[in-house]
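Late entry, written up from scratch paper. The run itself happened at the end of the previous shift, but nothing got recorded in the book at the time, so transcribing now.
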Amino acid sequence: MPEASNGGRRAFGLMVLATVALAGCRTDAAPLAVPVGPAPNAAEVRYIRDTGAAIYRRQGFERTRGFVFAEPGRGFAVCLRAPLRDGRLDHTLLILQRRIEGAVSQVEDDATILRAAADVGPCRNRSDWVPA
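Output as recorded:
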């Protein structure tokens, strides 16, 4: 059996070293996605679309694909955003108190709309936006 050359051993050693050093590293260049909660159902999407249209005065806007947080004690929150005239984004955190099934009457409409800068922090660095 012929002996391996020094160059071949060196290349093999570098390959092993690189494999050990890079074990567990991401190799794709895609950005890390923000974890997404469960997706709103069709009735919730309609409610979000109608509420967002009222907030943004029929201007086009986007919503997060899933709930930002979805806990019965805390609510079911969705982020909305629309461009301002100066190019910045106007964010809104819409919190549903419960999951929606069917239509929502005015009596049952108890969603919370938060627009203050301190309240919309969870919306700013998300990457899961879809047109509303």
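The chain is about 25% helix and 20% strand.
(Scratch paper discarded after transcription.)
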